[in-house]
Specification:
Layout lengths: L5 E10 L6 H19 L3 E9 L3 H10 L3 H18 L6 E4 L3 H16 L3 E11 L4 E3 L17 E10 L5 H9 L5 E2 L1 H10 L7 E2 L1 E3 L8 E2 L2 E6 L1 H6 L1 H4 L7 H6 L3 E6 L3 H14 L7 E5 L2 E3 L2 E2 L6 H12 L1 H11 L6 E3 L1 H30 L14 H20 L3 H22 L1 H5 L5 H22 L4 H10 L59 H5 L3 E11 L7 E6 L6 E5 L7 H4 L3 E5 L5 E3 L2 E3 L2 E2 L1 E4 L2 E4 L11 E2 L1
Parallel strand pairs: 1-2, 1-12, 2-3, 7-13, 12-13, 14-16
Antiparallel strand pairs: 4-5, 4-6, 6-8, 9-11, 10-11, 14-15, 17-18, 17-20, 17-26, 18-19, 20-23, 21-22, 24-25
Helix pairs in contact: 2-3, 6-10, 11-12, 12-13, 12-15, 13-15, 13-17, 14-15, 14-17, 15-17, 17-18
The chain binds ligand ME8.
Length: 637
Amino acid sequence: MTAPRPFYLTTPIYYVNARPHLGHAYTTIIADAMCRYRRLAGDTVHFLTGTDEHGDKIAQAAAEAGVSPQAYADAISAVFRETWRRLGISNDDFIRTTEPRHERVVQEILRTLHDRGEIYFGAYGGLYCFGCERFYTEKEAVDGTCPQHLTPLQFLEEENYFFKMSKYQDWLIRYIEERPALIRPERYRNEVLGFLRDPLQDLSISRPKTRLTWGIPLPFDDRFVTYVWFDALINYVSALGGPGAAAYETLWPHARHLIGKDILKPHGVYWPCMLKAAGLPVYAGLVVHGYWNLGGGKMSKSIGNVVEAFELVDKYGHDAFRYFLMREMTFGLDANFSEEALVGRLNSDLANDLGNLVSRATTMIANFADGAVPERGDPGPESAVVRETLARTRRDVDEAMREFAFQRALVAIWEFIAIVNGYVDAVQPWALARDPGRRARLHGALYTLAESLRCLAVLLDAFLPEAATKIRRGLGLEPQGLAALEWGGLAPGTKVAKAPALFPRIEAGKAAGSAPARPEPAVGEKPARPRVPIDDFARIELRVALVLAAEAVAKSKRLLKLSVDLGEGAPRTIVAGIAEHYAPAELVGKKVVVVANLEPARLMGVESDGMLLAGSTDGKLALLSLDRDLPPGARVK
Ligand code: ME8
């Protein structure tokens, strides 16, 4: 036995200015599949994901929501964590950049760099994108707009601290050139070397508190906070406790970062330079995937349909969604997402090829062998190809997974499925069962099928964990590692349960949502959100309120201060972010619905004791009102 190898895999830490969407789900799901695979291979795996919570973007989103950045980050980070839990993501840790364990390591690294003379104070003016939170060079800008967001870049000039990144240019080029496997696939390695053909600028690593306070203070000048990218990249070491910590010492030499191509430059250029300057080793690998497009266009978080695309996970099931994402995208290239394509794969590969095989095999064992794996018998010459394909599939999957080529791994597994289906057709166990003289042949065929299912459960475990578990449970087996992929491991006599349909077929015309394969979530409930018990809902006190007076809040475009009657004797003050949608005069005399038992909050200096309920979409907003009259204070539930 060889000693277990450490394997440390990270996803990007996602911004908390929006809910998880298809892109986030893709990276996290493939990271999960990879980590599950490495665990099955016997490696010691550490799988990290988390949320990126500082910076302009988050501060702005929180201000728009009328809450503090911390409260906003807490809420959205919890949605990410819960979403991954619900999808069965097997991460070992979840880091938030607002956690003290992270802030401490960021400040330590900043102090080290400052002490080593790697940081200086200077002025800089340039074209800035608030969406990307970075400066762009004239060459990178496209007609004065940001190449990512296509929004106008703004000229920004300010004094800041700079990291002497430019001095690492030659070192980094050599470092990458000497290590062909450092950045994969090859096209992204070439892209990073391409960036490095232009002169590398020093990196502004601070933001003045006069402009942004939501960040980690610089340990050597508290008039500044840390630039969000400088802060965020360090999560990969802070989650291990930072340099010197035991987890860092064991895992950091094996670190692999999995990212989308949008954040190649910070990971391929800034991060290795930062590590080198701090005297830390560079990561072992940077693995980059392409982009999912919807309807041919580039997705972004501002487009609601990336969230909707992700919601299909509830309609078709976790495994079908995982399978589609991994099978459809050639790792490293862009791919198109469509519900039709997902349904196509579900029907052909999952319901037909895999689902049918499992149900045929278990039904035949139930009918022709009393529901127990028979003796090994005589599997016939046709079985040789099944065993050979298994051995080849195992090798092909292993090779594919070394390169994160999930699509190739699945193609190899489906080759095995096709061979086993072909074996059933060739040996026709139902015909053997009619002939008492051919018992040994029948037993051999059924044993071959049962053993194929056992091996399939092992092969599928990392990719379709729910289906693999069902197949394995049908054979009454505990989870097995890749080492169990040796033919003949299944003991005769093992009880086999007839498998229920693993993947129900989706009928044509029903893909658009008329007949979901799974129960639809309750009306009004977002499927990607966790369900809450009724008792939790009952804790929220909703009441009818009569608006007595309304006025603008000084210096705020968004807020109105309302005086409302809740039938409590004295009116309450509620501050609501609705000034862009309602004139104060329009509101007086209206009956609305409010959350009456919220903790009071101060908004622009005014204490708000409650919250108005309103619906909104695409910049439209509508207050909840009653379609029949009820007195102020009436309970809504
Ligand atoms: O960039 N297709 O966070 P983020 C595939 N906080 N993957 C996509 C995608 C798409 N259309 N859209 C997003 C940030 N992704 C920073 C990262 S790391 C130290 C800081 C995935 O919330 C992909 O993994 O914008 C991409 O790199 C990531 O989400 C960006 O997430």
